[in-house]
């Protein structure tokens, strides 16, 4: 067959282009951003040097420059004495069950009478924050939303998306001004064109950690976590000055060429001055004056009519003169001023811990206090004070403090709301941007800013694990959902790991848990001192994060493997018999963190789950694929494909298969004798975010536009079937069927031989994850949908075996093991569904 030309490397500003690319290139992976703190937990960033792939020359079967590899340690080389090569363990040890991405296992899952065995919040939510130009908002102006997974989008006044850009590790709300959107990313600011989303420049900052910048004309003023305030020229990308270090500075507020800053002093002069208000010249960075506070400031200051206001964690509001810092007044208002102040002509508004908004008149007297709640800075709109709350948005009357209206959102609102053009805009923890009428709180529109693809769980002999959306990797005991601590996990968004055995790792001393040294699991019959002969093999997780970090760490080695299959959790009885569950919960055990076998960091942004086969671990990156030795984390080789590889690579018979987001299916020889070179590549006409499935001599691909195709493992076409609906997940392939889920709320089974439709079955919402198939000759297809329902279908004819509503937005692919189906939803919860 003829070989198509090479795809281009995507631009740095966006990786959302799904069109095929046909210009020749030989490129390296894009740099990964630094690790960041996350909302749910802050895991230790991985250490170790980045293993760099050397340029070994580019070439494929047709002689074109294509491949960037390091073949000094080929995957199949067993000559080096690094110990035994581990194997995968467990019923569903990697993202799509096996290295071929088949999504099919012989073990059975539930087929009727489904019930929820357990659910645990561990997978991590993806919150949304919203920003808008301040002071210059005009009717119909766009708002801008950023997700905690690195996406930034512009949304029009009608709730439709105008552009989308992916910036790995973008955080906090962006800032908007002068036709720019300024986004904190790692240790830099990324400047986007507000009209198109195109990346204009990136500016590295001289201090670690920062909040939303303040845009004032051509300046961005950044309050950092340890380096005071940094002034950046947005036009040139130059850092102009740094002032106030060492301190943790909140975003400045600018008035008449002066930036007013509240900051926590890391090295206070004395115990009575742990915080300060300072006036900084916007152009030069010179500090005009500085006034000590009697507590730590909790939010940016407010400026109005020549007065600067600040609140502290000791429950006081301070007012000082903007010209010279002279103190006007200091008033106690509650236990803790959590957010605010916001200043207006009629008074100063703050939020008090455990209560809600409160108003002070310009002289400092408390006018009213409200119990409406609130966790964001108060925003003023007409005659209202608007705040985000744990369940939505609340609006309080500015004159009386009475709650005028409440509006529920999908989840709590953690970042500031915005008000413009008669609407309140709020982003919540589950990634939904809501537009509300400012007069009564009625919903105008909702913009679900949640990713269409979510990492699914994997299942080992004892545990269920997966990549968390807001940082790291979770690991749960399969029988009851207890979460175990992991060390060495990535601090950034985790990818789906692989479960390996631990025979090649040195033994560790068993932990002790209860006072007498016993570790109790389930029925309490197993202790740390008992023999583990015949128990399931020791598990290790090989995982990582989108910043390029990789690790391998031992999971829990105690407790029985659920070899008999999981059934419904029995209800305890008040007076239990010898064989009945007790009324007392299993004792809590604080398990120690297991030391990682190794950690390393690739100089590449990891985009796919981990695929494991033949002693090698493979990940898709922002520019191709990378292979790693599981024994020590050393990089075996990397191949640049000139495009993003979002889906798990498939491995079979010494060859790796990958699909790029630009629409190319590529076959790569990974045997030592073949030197890890691209063997062939073929254009798919549509992009794909899911890895291929390789069974026998055929590779199956689900394109994003709903085009399902089959190719030989030499790249030749076999059949091509367009569906009338979008497909976000991949294919699950049995002996007779190719099964996919669609955006039209269907599960479709195609004939494996010719691609004709064998059956269609309705789901309760769009199916965005790859279905799972289990059960051997009497197979069941499990599909989780965006409506929150897990459905089971007969694999032969598509008839419904059961439906069970269990969560919200089940966009992750399910996994089957121990007689149960495990799935995660976009709220960050993991579920175990069992049968009778």
UniProtKB/TrEMBL annotation:
Biased composition (Pro residues): 569-579
Top-level division of the source organism's lineage: Archaea
InterPro entries membership: PQQ_b-propeller_rpt, PQQ_rpt_dom, Quinoprotein_ADH-like_sf, TAT_signal, WD40/YVTN_repeat-like_dom_sf
Occurrences of domain Pyrrolo-quinoline quinone repeat (ranges): 103-247, 275-351, 360-447, 597-725, 773-833
Positions of the UniProt region annotated as Disordered: 1-39, 53-90, 503-543, 558-588
PANTHER family xref list: CELL SURFACE PROTEIN, OUTER MEMBRANE PROTEIN ASSEMBLY FACTOR BAMB
Protein name per Swiss-Prot or TrEMBL: PQQ-like beta-propeller repeat protein
